[in-house]
């Protein structure tokens, strides 16, 4: 049997269509699942992404790249392969790539989250023979609460800090998580600010119908930050940039906040368990739902998940070579 996709050093390759999915290096044609840096890399000659991913990809890689956006669900013929993108529920524009060659179907999930989220398109379950699944949080201890509960926790924390006359400094990755956090803020509590790295993505989200409170850029130097919420990427956690927010309570919104000790190690006052990836139950539900006979795992240590699936008669293994790491969460 000829498989639609094979593993090459640059990444997953489709011989029938002569393209790669989320490749590294320099290739002629790259299909990219979403605009995070561990998937969307610079240097390729041609990019094909989902329609809503396109403006985000250009913000990340430059307006001059050669890239095309394909609406979700639309089938594109590339050589002997049929290709389509389907919502992955991870960040705005994130897609699972479905590749069909000679009646055999692979789906490459990229990163995904089946739980609903008000900042991006809802995950779509796609039937396939082989499912390439991420497993960033592939252990039973990872169990997400409904996002409305986490937004309430964040607003309560912000409100308590405001009443104590303190600013709230909340770290969240600049693309995806920051917008999701901003979307859930209650602006009646106080003014909302975001680091400059977060701002360029906001109009793209707004043009897809995502509503934000008024988000300001923090001015240089001292100001009155009491009661303010400031959302910033974790990259500036220890930088001088945060020094102006005197007396700030520091929080972090990430699935990794579910790991015991993670909050203390980073010297944070609060951790909010808000993830853009599937939790354990989410992974199992999707994997079973695809009806796939074979699962190939990426992103993280897939051994526990592979063993669990194997005991239930689903063949699962790590996708060729060293495990890939999740860079943004
Ligand atoms: Zn991602
Ligand atoms: Zn990723």
How many domains would you count in the coordinates? 2
> How many distinct helices?
7
Query: End-to-end span in angstroms?
Result: 37 Å
CATH architecture of the largest domain: 4-Layer Sandwich
Task: Give the CATH level 1 class of the largest domain.
Answer: Alpha Beta
CATH superfamily of the largest domain: Ribonuclease Z/Hydroxyacylglutathione hydrolase-like
Sketch the topology as an H/E string, one letter per element.
EEEEEHEEEEEEHEHEHEEEHEHEHE
Multimeric organization: single chain
Q: Roughly what fraction of the amino acids lie in strands?
A: 15-25%
Task: Count the beta strands.
Answer: 19
Strand order of the largest sheet: 7-8-9-10-11-18-19
Residue-averaged pLDDT, rounded? 94
How much is the radius of gyration in Å? 20 Å
CATH topology of the largest domain: Metallo-beta-lactamase, Chain A
Share of helix, binned: 10-25%
Alpha-beta classification: alpha/beta
Shape: globular
């Amino acid at each position: 049997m000829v498989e639609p996709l094979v593993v090459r050093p640059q990444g997953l390759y489709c011989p029938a269509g002569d393209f790669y999915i989320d490749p590294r290096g320099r290739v002629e044609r790259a299909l990219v699942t979403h605009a995070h840096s561990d998937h969307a890399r610079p240097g390729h000659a041609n990019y094909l992404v989902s329609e809503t991913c396109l403006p985000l990809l250009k913000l990340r890689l430059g307006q001059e790249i050669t890239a095309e956006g394909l609406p979700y669900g639309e089938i594109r013929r590339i050589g002997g392969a049929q290709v389509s993108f389907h919502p992955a529920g991870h960040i705005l524009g994130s897609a699972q790539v479905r590749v069909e060659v000679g009646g055999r179907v692979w789906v490459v999930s990229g990163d995904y989250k089946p739980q609903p989220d008000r900042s991006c398109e809802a995950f779509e379950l796609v039937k396939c023979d082989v499912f390439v699944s991420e497993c960033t949080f592939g252990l039973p201890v990872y169990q997400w609460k409904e996002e409305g509960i986490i937004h309430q926790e964040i607003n309560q924390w912000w409100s308590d800090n405001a009443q104590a006359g303190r600013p709230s400094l909340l770290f969240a990755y600049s693309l995806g998580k920051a917008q999701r956090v901003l979307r859930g803020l209650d602006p009646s509590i106080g003014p909302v600010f975001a680091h400059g790295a977060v701002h360029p993505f906001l109009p793209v989200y707004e043009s897809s119908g995502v509503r934000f409170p008024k988000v300001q850029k923090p001015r240089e130097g001292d100001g009155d930050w009491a009661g303010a919420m400031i959302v910033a990427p974790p990259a500036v956690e220890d930088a001088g940039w945060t020094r102006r927010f005197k007396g700030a309570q520091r929080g972090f919104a990430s699935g990794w906040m579910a790991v015991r000790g993670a909050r203390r190690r980073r010297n944070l006052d609060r951790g909010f368990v808000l993830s853009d990836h599937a939790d354990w139950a989410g992974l199992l539900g999707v994997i079973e739902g695809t009806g796939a006979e074979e699962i190939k795992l990426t992103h993280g240590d897939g051994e526990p998940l592979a063993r669990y699936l194997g005991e239930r008669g689903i063949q699962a293994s790590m996708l060729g070579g060293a495990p890939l790491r999740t860079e943004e969460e």
